[in-house]
Design brief:
Order of helices and strands: HHHHEEEEEEEEEEEEEEEEEH
Number of domains: 1
Oligomer: single chain
Number of helices: 5
Largest sheet: 15 strands, mixed
Radius of gyration: 21 Å
Strand content: 35-45%
Strand order of the largest sheet: 2-1-3-6-7-8-9-10-11-12-13-14-15-16-17
Structural class: alpha+beta
Length: 353
């Protein structure tokens, strides 16, 4: 599996969204590294976020946001994300859009217009948009949107419509905080549930996304803490993320700080940790848009390096020699999980951004 040029740009130019992070060596981790087992752990974790219901929610999330007219919050122009493209940059832009310009949230913060409360929305094929229906079941303090099978290329519901569940959005926001609950359900299975909460600080704001995703078999708990600050007119974004997969006895933690050197350059300091029954893997280092080098440690010992200076990341063993096929596949799986994360987490912000 190969990391593409687009993915390489997401790692370097758009690390604004996620930066893999950081625990130290776990003394409980096995002394031997099982690369194939680690790849399987990462694949299972990804599957929790890859259901048909999640795909539908990700595609239709912007239509849900459009119907709700977006959030009442406004983007702080000093925190606008500059000089980056791709899913990670989009995620960072939506984070900064949740930060109020004045340093305090407006008094009329309600995300959901009062006339919509208790309404179930269905897809209208003629207007290609959600419209209100007379269906029952929506939460009294929120709204319900039916979800449909989607075409991943056209990013529209397939015809004829095939219902695959629904999403409930419940708003508990106040004059000083954002507080929105989102639940994706099909039948008796909850595939996704989380809260988006936020509050202002003297220099920006804190946005937290906390909940779980499941494919019906594997469950992943996540806690995504994002701090956005304005330091001397330039944005600084700090991430502190944790994902736990109980059935695999697996935990992922990542922290990072992204700061701007200029309008076209940024500095990223990151540290990423995966701890599970197949070993402990840590990815750490720093880089700019121009490139950099990350060090990979396995069970506390230097295992490989990732060079970001070229078009695509280049992974080599600690002694400069190529990794085995299983080791290379494991490192690629970890990188691809990271690269896909911005798109997934951007989708979680859709109802409020």
């Amino acid at each position: 599996m190969r990391v593409t040029h687009y993915a390489r740009q997401s790692v370097v130019a758009a690390a604004l969204a996620l930066a893999l992070a950081a625990c130290g060596k776990d003394s409980s981790a096995p002394s031997e590294f099982n690369p194939a087992g680690t790849s399987a752990d990462m694949t299972a974790t990804e599957s929790a976020f890859s259901t048909e219901q999640m795909s539908s929610f990700a595609v239709l999330g912007t239509d849900i946001s459009a119907k709700l007219n977006g959030t009442a919050l406004v983007m702080n122009s000093a925190l606008a994300v500059r000089g980056a493209t791709g899913d990670a940059a989009r995620y960072a832009r939506e984070l900064t859009a949740l930060v109020p310009r004045s340093g305090a949230f407006p008094a009329s913060l309600a995300l959901i217009p009062s006339q919509y409360l208790g309404t179930t929305f269905v897809w209208d094929v003629d207007s290609s948009a959600y419209v209100a229906s007379d269906l029952a079941g929506a939460p009294s303090a929120g709204v319900r949107f039916l979800l449909y099978a989607v075409d991943p290329v056209l990013r529209q519901p397939v015809m004829p419509l095939v219902e695959v569940g629904y999403v409930d959005v419940t708003d508990h926001s106040t004059a000083s905080t954002v507080d929105v609950n989102v639940k994706v359900v099909e039948g008796s299975v909850v595939y996704l549930e989380y809260d988006v909460t936020g509050h202002a600080t003297a220099t920006g704001g804190v946005i937290t996304i906390s909940g779980f995703a499941s494919d019906g078999t594997t469950l992943a708990n996540f806690d995504l803490n994002n701090t956005i600050s304005d330091i001397n007119g330039s944005p600084v974004i700090a991430f502190d993320y944790h994902i736990a997969v109980p059935s695999r006895h697996l935990s992922l933690s990542w922290t990072a700080t992204i700061s701007y050197i200029s309008d076209t350059e940024m500095a990223v300091a990151l540290n990423f940790s995966i701890i599970g029954p197949n070993g402990s893997v840590q990815l750490l280092g720093s880089y700019t848009l121009s490139g950099g080098t990350l060090t990979v440690k396995v069970n506390g010992a230097v295992f490989a390096t990732v060079n970001l200076d070229g078009v695509d990341p280049v992974i080599t063993g600690a002694d400069g020699q190529p990794l085995t096929a299983d080791e290379e596949a494991s490192m690629q799986t970890i990188l691809e999980f990271y690269l896909n994360s911005p798109e997934v987490f951007t989708g979680l912000l859709a109802p409020v951004a």
